[in-house]
Amino acid sequence: xxxxxxxxxxxxxxxxxxxxxxxxxxxxxxxxxxxxxxxxxxxxxxxxxxxxxxxxxxxxxxxxxxxxxxxxxxxxxxxxxxxxxxxxxxxxxxxxxxxxxxxxxxxxxxxxxxxxxxxxxxxxxxxxxxxxxxxxxxxxxxxxxxxxxxxxxxxxxxxxxxxxxxxxxxxxxxxxxxxxxxxxxxxxxxxxxxxxxxxxxxxxxxxxxxxxxxxxxxxxxxxxxxxxxxxxxxxxxxxxxxxxxxxxxxxxxxxxxxxxxxxxxxxxxxxxxxxxxxxxxxxxxxxxxxxxxxxxxxxxxxxxxxxxxxxxxxxxxxxxxxx
Length: 323
Prior knowledge:
The protein is of the alpha/beta class. It folds into three domains: 6-91, Arc Repressor Mutant, subunit A (Orthogonal Bundle); 104-175 and 277-304, Periplasmic binding protein-like II (D-Maltodextrin-Binding Protein, domain 2, 3-Layer(aba) Sandwich); 177-268, Periplasmic binding protein-like II (D-Maltodextrin-Binding Protein, domain 2, 3-Layer(aba) Sandwich). The protein contains twelve helices and twelve strands. The strands form three sheets. A five-stranded mixed beta sheet has the order 4-3-5-12-6, with helices on both faces. It has a five-stranded mixed beta sheet with strand order 9-8-10-7-11. The radius of gyration is 25 Å and the shape is elongated. It starts with 5 loop residues before the first helix and ends in a 19-residue tail after the last helix.
């Protein structure tokens, strides 16, 4: 006990630690006050106490907000670990009762994944947890993983071929591809061949604006290439563009077979073999034994099973995660 500064420990309370982490994340006192349900005066008072305890300014005022000092940056991982340990200690013994919970579920993913999971998730919440609410964000891979790590969301859902040791992955479903074109497109009047496929004009979905993806990597292995003339960051703009042009797209199967009728599109199986990919639910290891996250993961797996038997491919007479 001789190495423990008891005076400083007596000055610390959990609210101070939450204020510190909130300021590190938002860099603005007004946002932290709203998040924690405190007044701005309380945030200012907490910051003064933190500066006294750690004998450092911690945050410097700038035009854009508060800038953490080097001491604050070094403290953040230690304080986050303390708060996570306390949270686990407090929540581990409890039993989650969804029918009584007023919690907000927070998930993130690309628009193709959300369009598959959000509708059945809402339906299940109406029955199993009528007081709970759902907040979903359209986030790319890196942003979604950061949000899980920061505790801003419960699950990041998508294709994650690599993630840090602090995150856990559970597979929801396996996805493959379909080729789409507007109704009456000359490409689909005959059998879709490799030659006719690569000669067509393609649209690509890439969250970072790339002009090549998994299809191009697959073609390159056989010495072939296609003509990508447009790139969009989301899947639904790709569907809308294909519906109003002569471009074709190669998009996830579950998205195509559900929404092609809505956009009046036709689809075919690709004439090349493109590797499948898994859609995963990522959570932080701190939530591995959290009853709420265990329950939510089970619900997400149930939602992923919806419409697992897709409609048959239309006959020719009728009809990376970057693709």
